[in-house]
Amino acid sequence: MAHPQPKHDGQGVQEEEEEYHPWYLHPEFSHPFKLARKITLGRPDAAAFRNLAIFPWDSETLQKLWDGTQYTPEIEKGWKQLVAQYWDAVAVTSDYSLHIFFTQQKKNPLSVRLPEDEQKLLETDTMCVAWAINLDKPLEPLVLFSRGSVLYSYNPERLGINGFMRGHGAAITSIAVHPTVPQLVCTTSRDYTTRIYDLRFEADILVEGNTLRARDKKVDNPVWPPVLKPSLAGAAHGLRLPVSEQEGRGMGRCIGVLMGGRSGGHQAAVLSAAFHPTLPLIATCGDYQESSSFKIISTHAFPKVPSQLIAPRLNLFQHPYQDPLILLAYPKGTSLTIVNPRFMKPRQPYPFPSSIKEKLLGGANHPPPPASPPESEYGADMGFGAGIPPDDVNSPFALPQTQAGAGLSKGKERARREEEEEGEDDEDDGGYNIMRLSGPDEELDHNDDESQDDDDEATVKDGEDEDTEKGEEDDDDDEDEEGFQEITDFINRRPNIEVPPIQVGWSIGLEQGTGQRDEGQRMMACAMGVGGRIIVGVGTKGTVWVWRNDS
Questions:
Q1: Contact 222/232 with Cβ under 8 angstroms?
Q2: For residue 19, which of 510, 417, 387 has the smallest C-alpha distance?
Q3: DSSP string for 371-392
Q4: Cβ contacts of 290 within 8 Å, gap of 6 or more
Q5: Where does each WD repeat begin and end (predicted)?
Q6: Nearest to 161 by CA among 144, 148, 174
Q7: Residue burial 223-252, b: 16+ Cβ < 10 Å; e: rest
Q8: Fold of the domain built from segment(s) 128-136+143-409
Q9: Where in the chain is the domain with CATH 2.130.10?
Q10: The overall pTM is greater than 0.85
Q11: What is the DSSP letter of 75?
């Protein structure tokens, strides 16, 4: 897996250096992960862990956050101490509790439990969790987690909840944090909306008391066409709560909302979102009754001191899918989506495979405009619609099973290779460093005799063409045949599913060193972190599994 490469020293002497080849580039080899630790709460009736988030930063991340503005000697020293303290931390949630475990260090876990409430949630609704940082306090990491429609902020340094945010009209389905501006947080919900928060500002806005005068005060909501005045809608539509109510307490204020329904957004629950690391873009995806759409919306208009909600309405492009989308990510110039099979009617079930699709963004390498242009011109300025189509699927492949969740991780080796490739002009790669996958053959020849005979025998459509070529022999029978044909199409109708090739992967089970699995144990979620060296899984009976790559 290593090949010697010549290396020149300062005196012109050539030395041989072994080139590193990541293990995942060789599907024929087994994975190097071994079960290193198993953590349990020690109670037989412990609730199942259903979501997790690994500490996402390392000692070199500070140079990339906030465009390097916080990279000072004083903050750098404190940042390294912070990373040394939390580098192996993983935040885990159950139905009402948040736990922070340390997978490698011998430290006691941090825990906080919410009081039980009467919210009516679906079985698939979990307490979402993510790590964030406030720009004003860069050395105090925050753990954001949700319960139903409420978003909470936990400070592990101060050992307490320092804020909560309301506003969604239904359960929160995901939490996304900006990769380079980690005080910007996005939450998606089943109320068809997406809300964007800024942790620098207080959640509650000072208004007058609950009086008639306060109710007549101007509502800080965006204009909702066709009305030309600020909307009076509330949380059920994803907008600002009335001035007589409280939107939250502590740090974290809603600065923008991506509305759904008649406002041009999602027509059903929004399941995931992702910020672009450098461009003012945000992608959202969700679950539709007929199809799922991929949307990218401009967020360049957010004010620095928001007192009024901003509601971007421009969809730079959207892409239809047959199934719900459960994950979005931006791996350098591309958009990665994971499609989950939708639930079919039990009377006529037919399989829909899970799949992953990598999509090229036509204007991903095009710099954003210097000023804030009108939203009607923003799509053209970003380069979408020119060059590579925004819905160009580069590397689709299927997954071997239904995916309840998914994650994306990038190791240090891949990050190093991306930095080396910056500035290189490679038309085939498109400026990104994702391992190219073998996609379906798009130039298959369907004109040979064998395939043509098979099509004639198998498809109903060819029979319709033959009847059409016979001409109109009997006008009286045409109506009967057309009516019969419509019924036949309805009964024998089955979707033409283009299944992409199965991607080669590696399975990591819950077996112990003896090769036996604990009875009743089931993994509910997993994630990869620490530069791709650790895999953490959580599941039933309050259990955390830690796999480590020591190679």
A1: no
A2: 417
A3: S---HHHHHHHTTTTSSS-TTE
A4: none
A5: 165-200
A6: 144
A7: ebeeeeebbebbbebbbbbbbeeebbebbb
A8: Methylamine Dehydrogenase; Chain H (2.130.10)
A9: 128-136+143-409
A10: no
A11: H
